[in-house]
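Problem statement: downstream parser choked on a complex file, so we are re-checking the raw output for the adenosine-5'-triphosphate run. The parser issue turned out to be on our end (a line-ending mismatch), but while we're here, posting the original submission so the record is complete.
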Amino acid sequence: MKNHTMEDLVSLCKRRGFIFQSNEIYGGLQGLYDYGPLGVELKNNLKKSWWKSMIYERDDIEGIDSSILTNPLVLKYSGHEDTFTDPLVDCKSCGERFRADQVPDYCKKEDLTEPRQFNLMFKTNVGPVEDNNSFAYLRPETAQNIFTNFKNVLDSAPHPLPFGIAQMGKAFRNEITPRNFIFRVREFEQMELEFFVKPGEDEEWHKKWTDLRLQWWEDQGVMRDNIELYHVPSDELAHYSKATVDIMYKYPHGLEELEGIANRTDFDLGSHTKGQKELNISAKVAENTQSNAKLAVQDLETKEWVVPYVIEPSAGVDRGFLAILNEAYKVESLKDDKERTVLALKPHLAPIKVAVIPLKRNEKSIVQQSIDLKNKLQRLIEGRVLLENTGNIGKNYRKHDEIGTPACITVDFQTLDDNTVTIRDRDTMEQKRINLDEVISFLRDNYSI
Ligand code: ATP
Protein backbone atom coordinates (compact mmCIF):
# COMPACT_ATOMS: atom_id res chain seq x y z
CA MET A 1 0.00 0.00 0.00
CA LYS A 2 1.28 3.46 -0.89
CA ASN A 3 1.33 6.50 1.37
CA HIS A 4 -0.85 9.30 0.17
CA THR A 5 -0.72 13.07 0.45
CA MET A 6 -3.25 15.80 1.09
CA GLU A 7 -3.16 16.51 -2.68
CA ASP A 8 -4.39 12.97 -3.34
CA LEU A 9 -7.38 13.58 -1.06
CA VAL A 10 -8.11 17.02 -2.55
CA SER A 11 -7.96 15.58 -6.04
CA LEU A 12 -10.32 12.70 -5.22
CA CYS A 13 -12.73 15.14 -3.55
CA LYS A 14 -12.91 17.34 -6.61
CA ARG A 15 -12.97 14.54 -9.21
CA ARG A 16 -15.69 12.53 -7.57
CA GLY A 17 -17.79 15.38 -6.18
CA PHE A 18 -17.07 15.36 -2.46
CA ILE A 19 -15.72 18.89 -2.03
CA PHE A 20 -15.28 21.91 -4.30
CA GLN A 21 -13.64 25.24 -3.74
CA SER A 22 -16.43 27.68 -2.96
CA ASN A 23 -17.28 30.33 -5.57
CA GLU A 24 -14.69 28.73 -7.82
CA ILE A 25 -16.03 30.17 -11.09
CA TYR A 26 -15.29 33.66 -9.73
CA GLY A 27 -11.86 32.76 -8.45
CA GLY A 28 -13.01 31.39 -5.10
CA LEU A 29 -12.98 32.98 -1.68
CA GLN A 30 -10.26 31.91 0.70
CA GLY A 31 -11.13 29.52 3.50
CA LEU A 32 -14.48 28.41 2.10
CA TYR A 33 -15.46 25.07 0.59
CA ASP A 34 -18.66 23.55 -0.78
CA TYR A 35 -19.67 19.93 -0.29
CA GLY A 36 -20.77 18.23 -3.52
CA PRO A 37 -23.24 15.38 -4.15
CA LEU A 38 -21.14 12.75 -2.36
CA GLY A 39 -19.62 15.08 0.23
CA VAL A 40 -23.01 16.18 1.53
CA GLU A 41 -23.99 12.53 2.03
CA LEU A 42 -20.82 11.63 3.92
CA LYS A 43 -21.01 14.77 6.01
CA ASN A 44 -24.68 14.22 6.86
CA ASN A 45 -23.94 10.60 7.75
CA LEU A 46 -21.18 11.71 10.11
CA LYS A 47 -23.48 14.23 11.78
CA LYS A 48 -26.28 11.67 12.00
CA SER A 49 -23.91 9.25 13.69
CA TRP A 50 -22.94 11.88 16.27
CA TRP A 51 -26.56 12.89 16.88
CA LYS A 52 -27.56 9.25 17.33
CA SER A 53 -24.81 8.61 19.85
CA MET A 54 -25.57 11.80 21.78
CA ILE A 55 -29.36 12.09 21.71
CA TYR A 56 -30.94 8.79 20.71
CA GLU A 57 -28.68 6.35 22.50
CA ARG A 58 -28.71 8.24 25.80
CA ASP A 59 -31.52 9.52 27.97
CA ASP A 60 -29.71 12.41 29.56
CA ILE A 61 -29.08 14.71 26.57
CA GLU A 62 -31.47 17.01 24.67
CA GLY A 63 -30.76 18.56 21.27
CA ILE A 64 -31.33 22.09 20.01
CA ASP A 65 -30.80 24.03 16.80
CA SER A 66 -30.28 27.71 17.55
CA SER A 67 -29.81 30.80 15.41
CA ILE A 68 -26.50 31.66 13.81
CA LEU A 69 -26.89 35.43 14.13
CA THR A 70 -26.10 36.25 17.71
CA ASN A 71 -26.91 39.17 19.96
CA PRO A 72 -23.61 40.94 20.77
CA LEU A 73 -24.46 40.78 24.49
CA VAL A 74 -24.11 36.99 24.39
CA LEU A 75 -20.58 37.32 23.07
CA LYS A 76 -19.79 40.20 25.38
CA TYR A 77 -20.60 38.20 28.53
CA SER A 78 -19.05 35.01 27.16
CA GLY A 79 -15.75 36.88 26.90
CA HIS A 80 -15.49 36.53 23.12
CA GLU A 81 -15.55 40.28 22.40
CA ASP A 82 -12.47 40.79 24.55
CA THR A 83 -10.56 37.56 24.18
CA PHE A 84 -11.52 35.68 21.02
CA THR A 85 -8.44 36.93 19.25
CA ASP A 86 -5.35 35.61 17.57
CA PRO A 87 -2.02 37.44 17.46
CA LEU A 88 -1.45 38.83 13.97
CA VAL A 89 1.92 39.77 12.42
CA ASP A 90 2.80 41.32 9.07
CA CYS A 91 5.88 40.28 7.15
CA LYS A 92 7.51 43.40 5.70
CA SER A 93 9.42 41.34 3.16
CA CYS A 94 6.66 39.27 1.48
CA GLY A 95 3.79 41.57 2.46
CA GLU A 96 1.66 38.74 3.86
CA ARG A 97 -0.13 38.42 7.19
CA PHE A 98 0.16 35.45 9.51
CA ARG A 99 -1.01 34.17 12.85
CA ALA A 100 2.08 34.77 15.03
CA ASP A 101 2.46 31.05 15.78
CA GLN A 102 2.10 30.05 12.12
CA VAL A 103 4.74 32.12 10.35
CA PRO A 104 6.36 30.10 7.56
CA ASP A 105 10.11 29.44 7.61
CA TYR A 106 10.76 31.68 4.62
CA CYS A 107 9.90 34.85 6.63
CA LYS A 108 12.79 36.24 8.68
CA LYS A 109 12.14 37.22 12.28
CA GLU A 110 13.49 40.75 11.74
CA ASP A 111 10.94 41.32 8.96
CA LEU A 112 7.96 40.70 11.23
CA THR A 113 5.93 43.43 12.94
CA GLU A 114 5.04 43.22 16.63
CA PRO A 115 2.00 40.93 17.08
CA ARG A 116 -1.33 42.71 17.53
CA GLN A 117 -4.59 41.11 18.62
CA PHE A 118 -7.12 40.43 15.88
CA ASN A 119 -10.72 39.46 16.76
CA LEU A 120 -11.90 36.44 14.78
CA MET A 121 -15.63 37.14 14.90
CA PHE A 122 -17.60 38.13 11.80
CA LYS A 123 -20.07 40.99 12.19
CA THR A 124 -23.08 41.68 10.05
CA ASN A 125 -25.79 44.27 9.97
CA VAL A 126 -29.29 43.47 11.19
CA GLY A 127 -32.28 45.46 10.00
CA PRO A 128 -32.45 48.32 7.52
CA VAL A 129 -30.43 50.89 9.47
CA GLU A 130 -26.69 50.52 9.44
CA ASP A 131 -25.31 51.94 12.65
CA ASN A 132 -23.25 50.80 15.61
CA ASN A 133 -26.28 49.50 17.45
CA SER A 134 -27.71 47.31 14.72
CA PHE A 135 -25.11 44.61 14.27
CA ALA A 136 -25.00 40.96 15.19
CA TYR A 137 -22.21 38.41 15.17
CA LEU A 138 -22.16 35.23 13.17
CA ARG A 139 -21.64 32.73 15.98
CA PRO A 140 -18.00 31.67 16.38
CA GLU A 141 -19.10 28.44 18.12
CA THR A 142 -22.41 26.68 18.63
CA ALA A 143 -21.91 26.51 22.39
CA GLN A 144 -23.09 29.95 23.51
CA ASN A 145 -26.73 29.56 22.53
CA ILE A 146 -26.80 26.30 24.42
CA PHE A 147 -25.98 28.27 27.57
CA THR A 148 -28.49 31.01 26.77
CA ASN A 149 -31.18 28.35 26.27
CA PHE A 150 -30.31 26.50 29.48
CA LYS A 151 -33.47 27.58 31.30
CA ASN A 152 -35.75 27.14 28.27
CA VAL A 153 -34.59 23.58 27.77
CA LEU A 154 -34.78 22.65 31.45
CA ASP A 155 -38.24 24.20 31.88
CA SER A 156 -39.58 22.28 28.89
CA ALA A 157 -37.64 19.04 29.32
CA PRO A 158 -36.74 18.70 33.01
CA HIS A 159 -33.65 16.65 33.91
CA PRO A 160 -31.73 16.16 37.13
CA LEU A 161 -27.96 16.72 37.02
CA PRO A 162 -25.99 15.45 35.22
CA PHE A 163 -27.57 16.14 31.85
CA GLY A 164 -26.53 17.66 28.56
CA ILE A 165 -27.64 19.85 25.69
CA ALA A 166 -26.17 19.17 22.25
CA GLN A 167 -26.12 21.13 19.05
CA MET A 168 -24.47 20.88 15.67
CA GLY A 169 -24.26 23.49 12.98
CA LYS A 170 -22.31 26.26 11.33
CA ALA A 171 -19.74 28.40 13.07
CA PHE A 172 -17.72 31.25 11.59
CA ARG A 173 -14.22 32.47 12.34
CA ASN A 174 -12.26 35.02 10.40
CA GLU A 175 -9.10 32.88 10.54
CA ILE A 176 -6.00 34.87 9.68
CA THR A 177 -4.50 32.04 7.65
CA PRO A 178 -7.06 29.46 6.56
CA ARG A 179 -5.22 26.45 5.15
CA ASN A 180 -4.80 22.72 4.76
CA PHE A 181 -7.96 22.19 2.74
CA ILE A 182 -11.00 21.86 5.04
CA PHE A 183 -8.87 21.67 8.17
CA ARG A 184 -8.84 25.39 8.91
CA VAL A 185 -11.62 27.29 7.22
CA ARG A 186 -13.63 30.42 7.89
CA GLU A 187 -17.04 28.75 7.78
CA PHE A 188 -17.31 25.29 9.27
CA GLU A 189 -19.55 23.04 11.29
CA GLN A 190 -19.25 21.99 14.87
CA MET A 191 -20.80 19.19 16.91
CA GLU A 192 -20.88 20.36 20.49
CA LEU A 193 -22.17 18.94 23.72
CA GLU A 194 -22.48 20.91 26.93
CA PHE A 195 -22.80 18.38 29.73
CA PHE A 196 -23.87 19.93 33.04
CA VAL A 197 -22.66 18.26 36.21
CA LYS A 198 -22.59 18.87 39.95
CA PRO A 199 -19.50 20.85 40.97
CA GLY A 200 -17.08 18.28 42.38
CA GLU A 201 -18.13 15.63 39.84
CA ASP A 202 -16.58 17.56 36.96
CA GLU A 203 -13.18 15.85 36.86
CA GLU A 204 -14.71 12.40 36.79
CA TRP A 205 -17.06 13.41 33.95
CA HIS A 206 -14.22 15.06 32.05
CA LYS A 207 -12.40 11.74 32.04
CA LYS A 208 -15.56 9.82 31.11
CA TRP A 209 -16.32 12.06 28.14
CA THR A 210 -12.74 11.86 26.89
CA ASP A 211 -13.03 8.05 26.82
CA LEU A 212 -16.47 8.14 25.18
CA ARG A 213 -15.33 10.51 22.48
CA LEU A 214 -12.23 8.42 21.70
CA GLN A 215 -14.42 5.36 21.33
CA TRP A 216 -16.82 7.24 19.06
CA TRP A 217 -14.03 8.31 16.70
CA GLU A 218 -12.83 4.73 16.58
CA ASP A 219 -16.37 3.66 15.69
CA GLN A 220 -16.21 6.07 12.75
CA GLY A 221 -13.08 4.34 11.48
CA VAL A 222 -10.39 6.58 12.96
CA MET A 223 -7.60 4.33 14.19
CA ARG A 224 -6.53 4.83 17.80
CA ASP A 225 -2.89 4.67 16.61
CA ASN A 226 -3.44 7.86 14.64
CA ILE A 227 -4.72 9.77 17.66
CA GLU A 228 -2.82 11.38 20.50
CA LEU A 229 -4.27 13.07 23.55
CA TYR A 230 -2.87 16.47 24.38
CA HIS A 231 -3.42 17.62 27.95
CA VAL A 232 -3.30 21.38 27.45
CA PRO A 233 -0.81 22.93 29.92
CA SER A 234 -2.27 25.52 32.29
CA ASP A 235 -0.55 28.50 30.65
CA GLU A 236 -2.19 27.61 27.31
CA LEU A 237 -5.73 27.10 28.63
CA ALA A 238 -8.60 29.25 27.35
CA HIS A 239 -9.95 31.76 29.86
CA TYR A 240 -12.97 29.59 30.72
CA SER A 241 -11.16 26.30 31.13
CA LYS A 242 -9.99 24.46 34.22
CA ALA A 243 -8.62 21.60 32.10
CA THR A 244 -8.71 20.72 28.40
CA VAL A 245 -7.82 17.53 26.59
CA ASP A 246 -7.40 17.84 22.83
CA ILE A 247 -7.92 14.81 20.62
CA MET A 248 -5.07 15.24 18.14
CA TYR A 249 -5.17 13.40 14.84
CA LYS A 250 -2.30 12.63 12.46
CA TYR A 251 -3.53 14.57 9.43
CA PRO A 252 -1.52 14.43 6.19
CA HIS A 253 -0.13 17.86 7.13
CA GLY A 254 0.72 16.93 10.72
CA LEU A 255 -0.65 16.22 14.18
CA GLU A 256 -3.50 18.68 14.86
CA GLU A 257 -6.68 19.11 16.88
CA LEU A 258 -9.75 17.16 15.83
CA GLU A 259 -11.80 17.74 18.96
CA GLY A 260 -11.33 19.58 22.25
CA ILE A 261 -12.84 18.39 25.51
CA ALA A 262 -12.89 21.16 28.09
CA ASN A 263 -13.89 21.45 31.71
CA ARG A 264 -15.44 24.93 31.59
CA THR A 265 -16.46 24.94 35.28
CA ASP A 266 -19.36 27.30 36.05
CA PHE A 267 -17.89 30.02 33.86
CA ASP A 268 -20.55 30.01 31.13
CA LEU A 269 -23.76 29.73 33.12
CA GLY A 270 -22.15 31.98 35.73
CA SER A 271 -21.37 34.61 33.10
CA HIS A 272 -24.83 34.60 31.54
CA THR A 273 -27.00 34.34 34.64
CA LYS A 274 -28.87 37.08 36.42
CA GLY A 275 -28.42 37.44 40.17
CA GLN A 276 -24.76 36.45 40.15
CA LYS A 277 -24.22 37.72 43.69
CA GLU A 278 -26.66 35.27 45.30
CA LEU A 279 -25.07 32.33 43.50
CA ASN A 280 -21.84 30.81 44.65
CA ILE A 281 -19.99 31.15 41.33
CA SER A 282 -16.42 29.87 41.46
CA ALA A 283 -15.17 31.14 38.07
CA LYS A 284 -14.03 34.71 37.58
CA VAL A 285 -16.94 36.21 35.67
CA ALA A 286 -17.71 39.75 34.55
CA GLU A 287 -20.65 41.41 36.30
CA ASN A 288 -23.83 40.77 34.31
CA THR A 289 -26.52 43.45 34.59
CA GLN A 290 -28.47 42.53 31.46
CA SER A 291 -29.48 38.86 31.64
CA ASN A 292 -33.08 38.14 32.65
CA ALA A 293 -32.71 34.44 33.41
CA LYS A 294 -31.41 32.58 36.41
CA LEU A 295 -29.17 29.85 35.01
CA ALA A 296 -28.94 27.58 38.00
CA VAL A 297 -30.65 24.50 39.40
CA GLN A 298 -32.08 23.94 42.84
CA ASP A 299 -30.79 21.10 44.95
CA LEU A 300 -33.98 19.30 45.99
CA GLU A 301 -32.61 18.31 49.40
CA THR A 302 -30.73 21.39 50.55
CA LYS A 303 -32.94 23.81 48.51
CA GLU A 304 -29.77 25.64 47.58
CA TRP A 305 -29.27 27.04 44.09
CA VAL A 306 -26.27 25.62 42.28
CA VAL A 307 -24.63 26.78 39.07
CA PRO A 308 -23.64 23.51 37.37
CA TYR A 309 -20.17 22.91 36.01
CA VAL A 310 -19.97 22.00 32.35
CA ILE A 311 -17.90 19.50 30.37
CA GLU A 312 -17.72 20.34 26.69
CA PRO A 313 -16.70 17.86 23.98
CA SER A 314 -16.45 20.11 20.91
CA ALA A 315 -15.68 18.51 17.55
CA GLY A 316 -15.33 19.92 14.05
CA VAL A 317 -17.43 18.21 11.39
CA ASP A 318 -15.05 19.23 8.62
CA ARG A 319 -11.98 18.11 10.53
CA GLY A 320 -13.78 14.84 11.23
CA PHE A 321 -14.60 14.48 7.54
CA LEU A 322 -10.94 14.99 6.65
CA ALA A 323 -9.73 12.48 9.25
CA ILE A 324 -12.23 9.87 8.07
CA LEU A 325 -11.31 10.42 4.44
CA ASN A 326 -7.64 10.14 5.30
CA GLU A 327 -8.20 6.88 7.17
CA ALA A 328 -10.32 5.35 4.44
CA TYR A 329 -8.19 6.29 1.41
CA LYS A 330 -6.08 3.43 0.12
CA VAL A 331 -4.26 2.65 -3.09
CA GLU A 332 -3.97 -1.10 -3.45
CA SER A 333 -1.77 -3.06 -5.83
CA LEU A 334 -3.60 -5.61 -7.91
CA LYS A 335 -2.36 -8.32 -10.26
CA ASP A 336 -0.58 -7.36 -13.51
CA ASP A 337 0.92 -4.16 -12.09
CA LYS A 338 -2.54 -2.63 -11.84
CA GLU A 339 -3.81 -0.69 -8.88
CA ARG A 340 -7.09 0.56 -7.49
CA THR A 341 -8.06 3.39 -5.20
CA VAL A 342 -10.50 2.34 -2.56
CA LEU A 343 -12.25 4.33 0.12
CA ALA A 344 -12.71 1.82 2.91
CA LEU A 345 -15.40 3.81 4.72
CA LYS A 346 -17.53 2.27 7.44
CA PRO A 347 -20.84 1.46 5.72
CA HIS A 348 -22.84 3.83 7.94
CA LEU A 349 -20.72 6.73 6.61
CA ALA A 350 -20.59 5.71 2.95
CA PRO A 351 -22.24 8.31 0.69
CA ILE A 352 -23.78 5.61 -1.50
CA LYS A 353 -24.90 2.52 0.40
CA VAL A 354 -25.51 0.30 -2.60
CA ALA A 355 -25.13 0.77 -6.35
CA VAL A 356 -27.47 -1.18 -8.62
CA ILE A 357 -25.85 -1.75 -12.00
CA PRO A 358 -27.63 -3.09 -15.09
CA LEU A 359 -25.03 -5.16 -16.94
CA LYS A 360 -26.22 -3.90 -20.30
CA ARG A 361 -27.45 -0.38 -20.25
CA ASN A 362 -29.42 -0.50 -23.48
CA GLU A 363 -31.24 -3.69 -22.59
CA LYS A 364 -34.72 -2.57 -21.51
CA SER A 365 -35.68 -5.61 -19.42
CA ILE A 366 -32.42 -5.55 -17.47
CA VAL A 367 -32.69 -1.81 -16.91
CA GLN A 368 -36.30 -2.12 -15.72
CA GLN A 369 -35.39 -4.91 -13.33
CA SER A 370 -32.57 -2.67 -11.99
CA ILE A 371 -34.90 0.28 -11.52
CA ASP A 372 -37.37 -1.92 -9.63
CA LEU A 373 -34.60 -3.24 -7.38
CA LYS A 374 -33.22 0.22 -6.77
CA ASN A 375 -36.64 1.53 -5.78
CA LYS A 376 -37.29 -1.41 -3.51
CA LEU A 377 -33.94 -1.06 -1.76
CA GLN A 378 -34.33 2.69 -1.43
CA ARG A 379 -37.61 2.22 0.43
CA LEU A 380 -35.89 -0.01 2.97
CA ILE A 381 -32.43 1.50 3.31
CA GLU A 382 -31.58 4.72 5.13
CA GLY A 383 -29.18 6.57 2.88
CA ARG A 384 -28.69 6.77 -0.83
CA VAL A 385 -29.08 3.83 -3.22
CA LEU A 386 -27.81 4.64 -6.70
CA LEU A 387 -28.93 3.34 -10.05
CA GLU A 388 -25.61 3.24 -11.91
CA ASN A 389 -26.57 3.21 -15.53
CA THR A 390 -23.37 4.61 -17.04
CA GLY A 391 -20.16 3.21 -18.43
CA ASN A 392 -19.08 -0.38 -18.36
CA ILE A 393 -19.09 -2.70 -15.40
CA GLY A 394 -15.32 -2.47 -14.80
CA LYS A 395 -15.46 1.32 -14.73
CA ASN A 396 -18.43 1.24 -12.41
CA TYR A 397 -16.69 -1.03 -9.93
CA ARG A 398 -13.62 1.23 -10.02
CA LYS A 399 -15.74 4.30 -9.40
CA HIS A 400 -17.63 2.73 -6.51
CA ASP A 401 -14.41 1.47 -4.92
CA GLU A 402 -13.11 5.00 -5.09
CA ILE A 403 -16.17 6.60 -3.52
CA GLY A 404 -16.54 3.93 -0.86
CA THR A 405 -19.77 2.15 -1.86
CA PRO A 406 -19.77 -0.99 0.31
CA ALA A 407 -21.65 -3.18 -2.18
CA CYS A 408 -22.51 -3.18 -5.87
CA ILE A 409 -25.36 -5.29 -7.21
CA THR A 410 -25.32 -6.27 -10.85
CA VAL A 411 -28.46 -7.25 -12.71
CA ASP A 412 -27.82 -9.38 -15.83
CA PHE A 413 -29.57 -11.78 -18.22
CA GLN A 414 -29.51 -14.57 -15.68
CA THR A 415 -31.50 -12.34 -13.31
CA LEU A 416 -34.36 -12.39 -15.78
CA ASP A 417 -34.30 -16.20 -15.76
CA ASP A 418 -33.73 -17.12 -12.14
CA ASN A 419 -34.11 -13.98 -10.02
CA THR A 420 -30.49 -13.97 -8.88
CA VAL A 421 -28.09 -11.03 -8.88
CA THR A 422 -24.36 -10.62 -8.35
CA ILE A 423 -23.32 -8.77 -5.25
CA ARG A 424 -19.74 -7.49 -5.11
CA ASP A 425 -17.95 -6.51 -1.95
CA ARG A 426 -15.85 -3.33 -2.08
CA ASP A 427 -13.10 -4.49 0.25
CA THR A 428 -12.57 -8.10 -0.85
CA MET A 429 -13.81 -7.62 -4.44
CA GLU A 430 -15.50 -11.00 -4.00
CA GLN A 431 -18.66 -11.62 -5.96
CA LYS A 432 -21.55 -13.78 -4.86
CA ARG A 433 -24.73 -14.76 -6.60
CA ILE A 434 -27.77 -14.42 -4.41
CA ASN A 435 -31.51 -14.46 -4.83
CA LEU A 436 -33.31 -11.12 -5.12
CA ASP A 437 -35.33 -12.00 -2.03
CA GLU A 438 -32.15 -12.32 0.00
CA VAL A 439 -30.63 -8.98 -0.95
CA ILE A 440 -31.94 -6.97 1.99
CA SER A 441 -31.02 -9.53 4.65
CA PHE A 442 -27.60 -9.97 3.00
CA LEU A 443 -27.00 -6.21 3.21
CA ARG A 444 -28.22 -6.06 6.81
CA ASP A 445 -26.07 -9.02 7.89
CA ASN A 446 -22.90 -8.00 6.10
CA TYR A 447 -22.98 -4.21 6.18
CA SER A 448 -25.57 -3.28 8.82
CA ILE A 449 -27.38 -1.17 6.26
P1 ATP B 1 -7.37 25.67 16.65
O1 ATP B 1 -6.48 25.78 17.85
O2 ATP B 1 -6.97 24.57 15.71
O3 ATP B 1 -7.63 26.99 15.98
P2 ATP B 1 -9.50 25.83 18.51
O4 ATP B 1 -8.86 25.28 19.73
O5 ATP B 1 -9.64 27.30 18.36
O6 ATP B 1 -8.80 25.21 17.20
P3 ATP B 1 -12.10 25.19 19.42
O7 ATP B 1 -12.44 26.59 19.74
O8 ATP B 1 -11.77 24.27 20.54
O9 ATP B 1 -10.91 25.16 18.35
O10 ATP B 1 -13.25 24.59 18.51
C1 ATP B 1 -13.72 23.26 18.64
C2 ATP B 1 -13.53 22.48 17.36
O11 ATP B 1 -14.03 23.20 16.24
C3 ATP B 1 -12.08 22.20 17.02
O12 ATP B 1 -11.60 21.05 17.71
C4 ATP B 1 -12.14 21.97 15.53
O13 ATP B 1 -12.50 20.63 15.23
C5 ATP B 1 -13.27 22.89 15.09
N1 ATP B 1 -12.69 24.12 14.49
C6 ATP B 1 -12.27 25.21 15.15
N2 ATP B 1 -11.82 26.14 14.29
C7 ATP B 1 -11.96 25.61 13.05
C8 ATP B 1 -11.69 26.09 11.73
N3 ATP B 1 -11.21 27.30 11.52
N4 ATP B 1 -11.95 25.27 10.68
C9 ATP B 1 -12.48 24.04 10.88
N5 ATP B 1 -12.77 23.55 12.09
C10 ATP B 1 -12.52 24.32 13.17
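For whoever reads this later: The chain is about 30% helix and 30% strand.
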